[in-house]
Design a protein that fits this description.
The structure is a single chain. The protein is of the alpha/beta class. It folds into two domains: about 270 residues, TIM Barrel, CATH 3.20.20; about 30 residues, no CATH class. About 30% of the residues lie in helices and about 25% in strands. The protein contains nine helices and 14 strands. The strands form three sheets. It has an eight-stranded parallel beta barrel, surrounded by four helices. Helix 1 runs parallel beside helix 4 and helix 7 packs parallel to helix 9. The chain is globular, with a radius of gyration of 20 Å. It starts with a helix and ends with a helix.
Length: about 325
């Protein structure tokens, strides 16, 4: 237990000390969790440096984006410094803030938890839940991100890990409520028809990365209607487990294969250099595909609770879509 928690305890204590010296009172007093519903356009930020370009800031203003889901860090397995043959869950890939949050934009601090790290939390879910929340809140305080109403956990839980994840989110949910804040979780398509979901105040259905990226016969692993529809057709009704928002892709990449086997993801397909036996599958959803899925999802699952969300804040990716197309994706019926 001591070794497993050492990295988190150290990181959280340091951040709490730093944030206490820079905390800025945002005023306005406590916000009741019942008042957290706030419909607005939203976007993910999934880089390790927060420093939006002029174009990205203009995009936020032009599309009335009122909420930023910022990935603050990952929780992954790292080698134990005391017992190097062991691995422990620890925060990595912490985001550095080189710019201030745009005025009037709410931040939802987000953490990505790998399945390997999640499995190592078994039996210690309560301790990890509080340390993850404390680290997220210390980061937003230190970086002066404003009033925080909501925290998001992102994890692709499976049948074998759902009990661990539910214990983690259950305690994080209760802990956040004592701080007058809420918990949201991400939900993948394959989890829609699970018997139950982990405990949270709301969910975000991720409508991207729907296909098998390593399969050479996959047409588009980011978003393909033929991948989405089987999940929707299996759903005959939706119970009231939690309200849902929807996240749609506005990005692309290349998938490199070598001798028919998956090799790597190429962030800039236009500049990719291919060697002998290598091929590149370029993937980018069209706005027509995104809007078709959006229509089907809303018809089957209902309208969004708060926001349609797009992934992610990157001008090089966003310039592939017109302002009108982005407006259509954001629209709430």
């Amino acid at each position: 237990m001591r070794q497993r928690l050492f990295y988190f305890v150290s990181a959280v204590v340091i951040l709490l000390l730093m944030s206490s010296s820079r905390h800025v009172d945002s005023g306005g007093g406590a916000i009741s969790v019942q008042q957290h519903e706030n419909p607005t356009n939203a976007i993910y930020h999934w880089k390790t440096v927060f420093n939006p370009s002029a174009e990205e800031l203009a995009f936020i203003e032009r599309h009335d984006i009122g909420r930023l889901y910022i990935k603050m860090f990952d929780v992954a397995c790292v080698k134990d410094s005391i017992e190097p043959y062991n691995v422990v869950p620890a925060p990595i890939a912490t985001t550095r803030f080189d710019a201030s949050i745009p005025e009037g934009v709410e931040v939802v601090p987000t953490v990505y938890i790998t399945l390997e790290a999640l499995r190592l939390m078994e039996g210690y879910e309560c301790a990890y839940a509080e340390m993850i929340v404390d680290r997220l809140l210390a980061m937003v305080s230190y970086n002066e991100c404003g009033e925080i109403r909501e925290v998001q956990f992102d994890c692709d839980w499976t049948e074998s890990t759902i009990d661990i994840y539910t214990a983690l989110t259950d305690h994080a949910h209760s802990y956040l409520h004592t701080l007058d804040k809420e918990l949201s979780i991400t939900i993948r398509l394959h989890q829609l028809d699970d018997d139950y979901w982990p405990i949270a105040d709301r969910g975000v259905l991720m409508l991207y990365n729907t296909g098998a990226i390593k399969n050479p016969s996959t047409r588009n692993s980011i978003l393909d209607i033929t991948d989405v529809m089987p999940y929707l057709r299996r759903i005959t009704y939706m119970d009231d487990r939690m309200p849902l928002d929807y996240a749609y892709p506005t990005f692309g990449w290349g998938v490199k294969f070598r001798d028919g086997e998956f090799h790597s993801i190429v962030s800039d397909p236009a500049s990719a250099t291919l060697g002998e036996g290598e091929t590149l599958r370029v993937e980018r959803p069209t706005v027509e595909e995104v809007l078709t899925v959006k229509s089907w999802v809303e018809e089957n699952l209902g309208g969004v609770y708060q926001s349609n969300i797009i992934y992610h804040l990157d001008d090089e990716e966003l310039k592939n879509y017109t302002d009108d197309e982005i407006t259509q994706i954001f629209s709430r019926n």
